[in-house]
Structure formats: structure tokens, C-alpha cells
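User: Round two. Same drill as before: sequence, then structure, for each protein.

Assistant: Same drill it is. First protein:
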Amino acid sequence: MTKITLAVTFAFSLMFTANWFAGFVFRDAYSHQLVIDIPDFDEAPLVNRAALQRSWPNGLSELSMRAQVRAQMQDVENLEPPKRTAALTSEAAAPPAPEPDLGTLLASADLANGNKRARICGSCHTFNDGGRNGTGPNLWDVVGRDIAAVASFDYSAALAAEPGNWTFEKLDDYLLKPGAAIPGNSMNFQGIKKARDRADVIAYLRAQAASQIPLPEPAPAAGDSDAN
């Protein structure tokens, strides 16, 4: 019984050794033959990594899976990393396009959008001539007037002490961040983040007047200045 067991064990060991040796000797030849014999090798689909991971290492026993792996490796080897890296670096390094200046935005302002955006102000303000004050003062003819010009409205100390007029630039700053433009004012408003929307609101406010003050000139485009 012992001799039979030893014989069987020896036979299995011999088969395993022979199989390993054959795989080692003919590995390169088999790999080369795999590339030649697989139809449409260059068009093999990408590797399903999830499926390969679930079935590892048995998944590689399938000829199609090995072809996919080898095809993908070949695609990676054929890439040109310097060119790809240069393109990605150039795109990442490119600065964002600057926003148009206020004069340019006002020249092409959308009054309908300004009216829509200004509706949020309607809970505290009125816009018509002779309109009542609410939580905030009436905004008829606000563009260009003194900052605390409505005599019938009780302004906060910060606004009452603020010098100057509601210029286009001042309104733009105030609509962006009221608390930063005039610190200490009591207006509870988070601001309008987009420059285009702020310009549309200012253009709408400008239109709510008997006569409209001139718009600021758009900034000259780069290269448009006269060369001496």
C-alpha cells in the first residue's frame, strides 16, 4: 500500500514539474502566438477590471480575457506621455478668462433679467415714482442720487454717514456684499454673486427714473489703446 501511495505521489509530482517546465520554456512563444491568432486583436475591448478581480487568478485562463489585458497594455505602451502631460499642464496653467468690466456688462444689460432679479428686493423696497418706503427706502431714481437721499426714511447710522452717491460702481459693490461695501448697515441681504446679474439689476434700477444718467464707458479691449 505504501509503494502504491509513493508511486502515485511521484507521478503527480512529475506531472506538475513537467507542466511548470513546459510553461516556462514556451511562455514567450505562446504569448507571441496569442497576439497573432486572436482575430481583431487591435479592436479588443477594454478590460473589465471588476470581473477580472472577482475571478482572479482563474479569469486569466480565458483566452478572451488574456487578449483584452494584452491589448490594453499595448494601448498604454503606445501613448505619448510627454505630449499628453504637456497638454494637460497647459490647460491647467491657463488662467480663467477675466470677467467683462461693469461698463461692458451695462452696455449689453438684460432689463428683463434685471426686473426678475430685482423682485427679491420687492419685499423691502418699491420702485415706482412716489412709492412708499418699506423696510428699505423707495428706489425710484436711485442710480446717481445721494446715498441717504429719501428724507422720509430712517436710514441706519452707517448709511446716513456714508458720503457720496449711488454710482454704478457703488451699487455694484453694494449688491455684491452689502456688509463689506458699507459696514454696519442694517440691510439683511446676502448679495448677488454673478457680475452679469448685478449689472442687469443696476440697469433695471437706472430705467426706473424720469431721466437716465449716462452709462459708464466700457473699458478698452487689450491692444486697443493708441500706441505713441
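Second protein:
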Amino acid sequence: MEFHHDETEKTLRTRRFTHLVGGRSVPGLLFTAPGEDKPQQLVLIGHGASSSKQEGYVTALARQFVRHGLSACAIDGPVHGDRRQDGVLQGTLPFLEFSQLWANDPLMTDHMIEDWRGVLDALLELPDIADGPVGYWGVSMGTILGLPLVASEPRIRAAVLGLMGLVGPTEQRLAVDAERLGCPVHFLVQWDDQLFHRDVAFQLFEAIGSNDKVLVASPGGHGDVPTGSFVSSGQFLIHRLTGTYPRRAQ
């Protein structure tokens, strides 16, 4: 793992890195508390299509986790962020290219799982990252690629998923992997989701094999997830990983 940039604000240290996995250069960000000596448990954050690891909600979630004694990591998904050569970090082009890749590359999901696992292995060797239970937060594309990761990675002990349903090119795989999920799951649904209708989202939630799962539905379209849902889903992971009940900052 090679670190390229290290930036520290008052409450957040952000390190930019790349890590070689299976011949692929995986770009990522590691978020930790400045000056923290005690190893911190880790949350993996999977961003949605048309955005990147630098998306505002990724950093906001990372701040929430770090504030409660955790660390966080985000990596760019396929054809997103620093994996691109054209510098386009968000918008229609990455979304369309991802849709094409989802439909035509049967290895895309497995490659993303390999990328996450390779990064996770490397991060757990760092002195400021605790070798303990890991969390995962990822909705929309973060669920398309993250649900199979959670199903196959025993180190992940709690997950936030959603904004996705039993639909699309990998529908059958998602159904099989959903049944394999055994960790606690917090599942987000947008009631008027124009990309993944709530009915198929309900089907995916029902397919999840865990007995410890909760569905939270909010009004609005796919991109209208309220701030409260980000905060409460983050609190879910904090509680599951640390055993504490975090209070929302005033």
C-alpha cells in the first residue's frame, strides 16, 4: 500500500493511497482521528454510481465514525473516481459506463470483492487500525457491489445496505448472496425511488438471511436520502461495532 497525500484537519486525518490488487491499482482514502495512538476499528464505505470516494456524504460519514472512535476507508468503484483517465469524478458518464459494465462484465463484482479484500488486508496491518470486527456502509452501487462482499467476508460484522432491489444484470447473484447474509443489516429505501422501485427493494430486504435486520423507508427519490438516514445508519454501525449508543451531535 502506497500513501500519496496526508492531510490533517482539526478532527479528521485523511490519507490518500493506492494499492495493487490483481494487477489493478485501487485508489482509496483512509480516514482516522488526528494524533490517535489507540488502534481504531474500521468501517468500509462504498460510494454510489456517478460519484466517487471523494463524495461529500462519504466524508461526512467518515467524520461521524471517527468522532466515535472508529476509522473509515473508501475506494473508488469501477470506472469511477481516480480509476478513470479523463478526470471525470461524477455525473452521467460514469453512471452510464458503470451500467454498461454491470451488464457486460461478469467478473466486475468479483474484482471489486478482491479489491476490497486486498485493501482490507493491507489496512489491518497498519498500527492505527484495529484487527477486529469491520463494518460496511454502501447503498445503490455500494449495495450492488457491496452486498456480495459482505456475504463473503467474515470480518464484516454489520452492514448498511439499500437503494437497490432484486433487479438488474446480477439479480440472481444478489438473491443468492442476500440469503447468505448473517450479520446485522440496516437497509435504506426511498419510497419514490425512480431507479429501483420500492417493491424490488422490499424483495431484496426479504431475501436477506439475517434475523437481525431493519428496514428504514423515507419519502423522496433515489437521490433524496435525508441527512437523518445517513446519521442513523452510521449510528447503527457504531453501536454494532463498539457496543455504545452514540448520540447525534447538537
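The helical segments are 56-67, 92-104, 108-123, 141-144, 146-152, 171-180, 198-207, 227-242.

User: Perfect.
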